[in-house]
Amino acid sequence: MGFHLAGAQPQRRIMNVFIEAFIVGAVGFAIAMVANSISPRGLSLTRNYFPPAPTQAASATNNAGAVASPALLATNASPENKLAERLAARGLRRIEFAEVRRLYEDPRREQELIVFVDSRNEQSYLEGHIPAAYHFDHYYPDKYLPAVFPACQQAETVVVYCIGGDCEDSEFASVYLVDAGIPAARLNVFAGGFEAWRTNGMPVEIGPRGSGELQQKKQ
C-alpha cells in the first residue's frame, strides 16, 4: 500500500506540471490576442498574407489585352507631351519656333497687339532677350506686373518664354498671368524658349526693353 502511494505522487506532480503549462499557455494566448486587436499594427486573422502567384495564363492575358492606366501613360509620356497636357489643362497653348517667328514678323506686333513676355531672371534678360519683350519674373510679381499686365490686357496674343528645355518659368509665369486676370486663350508658351530663338539666328536686344541695342551675331 505504501509503495502504491509513493508511485502515485510523481504521476500527480507530472499531471500538475501539464495543467500549469496549459493554463500558462492559454493565458498567454489570450493576452496576445488582446494585444493584437488593440495594436494598430496587429495582424488581420482573416487576411491571406501568402496569396497565390498569378498564373501564367492570367499574366499573359493582362500583358496582351490590358490597357495601360492614365498614370502609367503619363509616366511614359515625353517631356514635350507632358508640358502640352499641363498647359492644355489650363487652357494654354504650347507653340514652336515657326509660329513664334511668324508672330514676331506680324505687323500687329508693332501695335502691341502681339506681345512677348520674357520670364527669366533679370540678369539673363539684360544680357539678351527678344526685341521689345516685356520682362516678367514671376518670383517678383510686384516689381514687373504693373508694366506687363496692361500690355497683356490690350494684346490679342501673348507669347511667354524662358530659356527653353526643362525650364518651367514660362509655364509658371503664364499661370500667374491667368490667375491675375489675363484670359488663358491669349497666352502661348514658347517651348523652345530663348535658346531656340538665338540658335535660329533671330535678333536679340540687350539691356532694358526698347533699348534698340542689338547683340552682334557671331560670325
Characterise the protein shown here:
- By secondary structure, this protein is α/β, with parallel strands linked by helices.
- It folds into two domains: 7-41; 78-199, 3-Layer(aba) Sandwich (Oxidized Rhodanese, domain 1), CATH 3.40.250.10.
- Helices cover 52% and strands 9% of the residues.
- It has helices at residues 2-38, 56-65, 70-76, 79-89, 97-105, 122-127, 141-154, 169-180, 193-199; strands at 93-95, 114-118, 134-135, 157-161, 187-190.
- The protein is rod-shaped, with a radius of gyration of 37 Å.
- It has a five-stranded parallel β-sheet with strand order 1-5-4-2-3.
How many distinct folded domains?
Answer: 2
| Portion in strands | 5-15%
- What's the pLDDT, averaged over the residues? 80
The number of helical segments is 9
In brief, what are we looking at here?
This protein is an alpha/beta fold. 52% of the residues lie in helices and 9% in strands. It folds into two domains: 7-41; 78-199, Oxidized Rhodanese, domain 1.
Summarize the SSE layout with pairings:
Blueprint: H1 2-38, H2 56-65, H3 70-76, H4 79-89, E1 93-95, H5 97-105, E2 114-118, H6 122-127, E3 134-135, H7 141-154, E4 157-161, H8 169-180, E5 187-190, H9 193-199
Parallel strand pairs: 1-5, 2-3, 2-4, 4-5
